[in-house]
Amino acid sequence: MRELYIIILALVTFSCDIDQQEEAVLTILADRTDAHILNPEVDDIRALIDLDRSPNMGVNIYFQNLGNVDYSPLSTIAIASFSLLDNELQRKSNIKRFYSEIDSLVVRENARSYDFNNSSILYPLINHLKKLNSSGATKKQLLLYSDLMEFSDIYDSYAGRDNLLKDSKAIGEKLRSSLDIPNLEGVTLFLMYYPETIEQNRLFRAWHSVYRELFNESGLEIYIGINQISS
Fold first, then answer.
1. DSSP letters for 53-67
2. Which of 72, 84, 106, 172 has the fewest C-beta atoms under 10 angstroms from its C-beta?
3. 30 neighbors 40 (Cβ within 8 angstroms)
4. Which has the closest alpha carbon to 195: 208, 176, 180, 186?
5. Using one digit for the tens of pLDDT, what is the confidence trace for 33-69?
6. Phi, psi (degrees; rounded to nearest 5) at 18
């Protein structure tokens, strides 16, 4: 009888552990308006979801290209969390297939030809941050591959270049007053961009300052790169 009790207790404990598995949502936004902007990398995605460390975690991946318009096709890939009906061999196979799907998606989208003259970044970004905020996931992350150079109805980085470099904080405050920024506690934004010239550095630094001010009161965590350099 004692042995039966131990077995039942172990099964209940195991079931509770499964129920409490992590759920992760990762959104990848790829700005395709300039050739010098980094392309999404599978290694970046692997590093953030880290199924090697948490093999039982459920993951949802959302991928969207950014360009002239606020709305563009959205690709999704998902792997369910480990369940009582799974076994370790099947789980390893599912993870392998999941990574293969991610690799195929990234390679395919990076290989496409893009010809965008405008950069609508902020509207899609805020829209996806809202979706991340409303999800029940335990890990909510967004990879933004972009130089942040907005060129849309929201802001013209080229006509407003001097103002941007002179007082980026004021621009951030103005944008915050006109955009609906929700509470983003628990959401992390990774800015994937590294300037190559002095001019690119000035503009990225200015837009980075705009983002800090824009999301200052939201609780959003912002990093430059995925190596946890806080911004």
1. T-TT-EEEEEEEEES
2. 84
3. yes
4. 208
5. 998 999 999 999 999 998 989 999 999 999 999 998 8
6. -65, -40
Beta-bridge partner residues of 194? none
Whether 229 and 223 have beta carbons less than 8 Å apart is answered as yes
Please tell me the pTM assigned to this model.
Answer: 0.88
| Structural domains of the chain in order of their starting residue, each with its CATH number | 22-224 (3.40.50)
- At 115, the pLDDT band (50, 70, 90 cuts) reads confident
Please tell me the predicted confidence (pLDDT) of residue 69: 87
Q: Are 207 and 164 in contact (CB under 8 A)?
A: yes
Q: Distance between CA atoms of 29 and 31, rounded to whole angstroms?
A: 7
Is pLDDT above 70 for 132? yes
CB neighbour list of residue 183: distance below 8 Å, 6 or more residues apart = 133, 218, 219
Sequence-ordered list of residues with C-beta below 8 angstroms from that of 20, at least 6 positions apart, any chain: none
**CA 196 to the chain's CA centroid:** 23
* Token pair 């990093």 in the structure block, residue: 223
Asked if residue 67 lies in contact with residue 149, where contact means CB atoms within 8 angstroms, the answer is no
Q: How many CB atoms lie within 10 A of CB 147?
A: 22
| Paired tokens of 183 | 């509470």
- Residue 12 is predicted with a pLDDT of 44
